[in-house]
Structures are given as C-alpha cells and as structure tokens.
Amino acid sequence: MRGADNQSFPVLLKPHHASASVHLPSISVIAQSRTVIALLTIAFIVSCGASAAYSAANDPARPSIIEVLLKWAPLIGAGFLFNIAVSIASMAIGTLTGTLLGLGQISLSPTIAKISWFLTQFFRNSPWLVLLFFAMFLLPFDFKIAGFTIPLPAWFKAIIGLALPVMANVAEIVRGGIKSIPFSQWESAESLAFSRRQILWQIILPQAFKRMIPPWMNLYAILTMATTLISVVGIQDSMTLTKAALVAEGRLDLYLPFYLMLLVMFFAYCYPIARLTQRLERRVAVKF
Fold first, then answer.
1. Is 82 inside any structural domain?
2. pLDDT tens digits in sequence order for the chain, 288 residues long
3. What domain count does the chain have?
4. Per the domain annotation, does 131 fall within a domain?
C-alpha cells in the first residue's frame, strides 16, 4: 500500500484545471472563417454574373439566374432537410450499435472481443457506397411478423446502409476513448474494491466521454456530406432534386449556380460543426 500522497486516490478526486476560463476562438480562427465565407460569396457572385452574361448573350428573354434560383430554392431546401434527417437517423443508429460494438472489443470474453473486432474492421474498411448498395438491394422489401406485412421503404434501407460504416467508426471512437484513460485508473479502482462494471461506468467512461465528443462530431459532419450518396441509389434528396431542376430548366448556364447553392447549404450546416469540434478538441486535449 502506497503512502497517502496525491497519487493514492486518483479515481476519487475531481481533476483540477489551472484555469477555468472559457476558451474563446482565436483571432486567426475568426479570420479564417471570414476568409472562407468571403471566398464562397465571391464565387457565388462570379458564377451568377458569368451565367447571367452567358444567358443574356444567347437569349435575353430568359429569366435571370436569381429568379430561377429563388424559384427552385424551396424544393432543393426541402431535399437538403431530408439529407439532414437521414444523417441524424443514421448517426443515432450507428452510435447506439457502435457503442455496444466498442464495449464488446474490450470484453474479457475472447469470443465477444474477436467478433466485435471483426465486425468493426469489416464495416470500417468497406466503401460507404458499396455498403449502401448492399443495404438497398440485399435487404428485403418487406417482412412478415405474426401475419402482418411490414414494408421496408427505400429511405429506411438507405439509413441502414449509412449506419453500418458509422457503427464501425463509432466503435473505434469508443474503444480508443476508453484505452486513452491511463491503466492506473483501473488499478487504483480495483484496489478500492470496485467491480469491473463499476470501474467502467463510474470512473472510466465519464472521463473518456469528453474525449469521444470531438471525433464523434467530426464523424457526423462527414456523414452529413456523405448523405448525397443516396441519390445514386434512387432516393430523392437534395442532389436528385437539383438534377431534376436543371433538367426542367434545360439551361447550361444554371449548372454552376445551382450546384454552388447546394454546396453553400452543406457548408453552412457542416462548417460550424467543424469549428466547434476544433474548440472541443482544444478544451479536452491532454496537457503534459
């Protein structure tokens, strides 16, 4: 038994931080944000101007670029909201199953640990589009339970297809977060007669949770941008609706403004998440 010093009860003491001040964005971060927004604004204005000049030279009677964008913006915006709904549902399913899979990798049972490791590596190293096709065409269109036929709509199968790689990546986030806690925490808790379950749920996971949040948020941003893959398998999302709008208008000068508008939608949603992720990474970073 060691002496009663600062290392005797590391699991019972709340970590002390030298400063409780809130980390505010640095000047360089603010400058970078303004630069990116300014570049996107300039690109949008230039594309609209170039398209308007092309349209005026070929057919002056055509509606302006802004008028066409405003006409189709509500429909494309509705498709974008569908992409967000798919990303939230896939992230929820992937987080739940991935957490179980990550805990399975640290199980004391060799069978559970090996199966969890295999599933994690298989889905983590498989292309997202291949898994999406796998879910869309190999899952049944419906199934029967107690005489009732329950359909599986295409959008639900797309959510499952995107949840599979998310599950594997969340499993690695959970496993890495738990492994990042020093093993001395386990030893100290065992010396105080804590059971393994108590150590995991009351000591290890509360500390690891803060370290899991930044990569989890980063994964969600990646998933949101990857939801446009569902347009490949026939789901009507923002990408599909943008293509339909361009076909309906039949104007080559609209391609750049329309896709740039869609890009701005995703950027406006994902960029704040990326900045918040970086702030959280700085706050939970381990200082030596």
1. yes
2. 444 444 443 444 444 443 433 444 444 544 565 676 666 667 666 666 666 565 555 656 677 788 888 899 999 999 999 999 999 999 999 999 999 999 999 988 999 999 999 999 999 999 999 999 999 988 888 878 877 888 888 999 999 999 999 999 999 999 998 988 888 888 888 888 888 888 888 888 888 888 898 889 999 999 999 999 999 988 889 999 999 999 998 888 888 889 989 998 999 898 888 888 878 777 766 554
3. 1
4. yes
Cα 66 to Cα 68: distance, rounded to the nearest angstrom: 5
Alpha-carbon distance of 154 to 232, in angstroms, equals 12
Q: Which amino acid is at 11?
A: V
Q: Do 66 and 135 contact (CB within 8 A), yes or no?
A: no
pTM of the model: 0.77
3-class DSSP state of 103: helix
**Are 224 and 166 contacting, i.e. CB atoms less than 8 angstroms apart?**
no
Q: How many CB atoms lie within 10 A of CB 105?
A: 21
In a domain, 229, yes or no: yes
Alpha carbon distance 123, 98 (integer Å):
11
C-alpha 51, offset from chain centre:
34
Provide the β-strand partners of residue 150. Answer: 143
Rounded Cα gap, residues 113 and 95, in angstroms: 18
Q: What is the DSSP letter of 230?
A: G
Answer whether residue 51 is part of any domain. Answer: yes
